[in-house]
Amino acid sequence: MASQERIQQAEIWKELLHRLPGVVSAEFVFDDKDSVKELHILSTQKRSPKQIVRDVESAMIAKFGVEIDHRIISIAQISDDVLKDRLPVEKRLICSGMDVSIRSNNAEICVELTYGEAVFRGKVQAGPKGAARRRATAEATAAAINQYGNGEFCARISDVKVMEIAEQSAVVVAVSFQSRGREELLLGSCFQWEEDGLPVVRATLDALNRKISFF
Question: Is residue 98 in a domain?
Answer without folding.
Answer: no
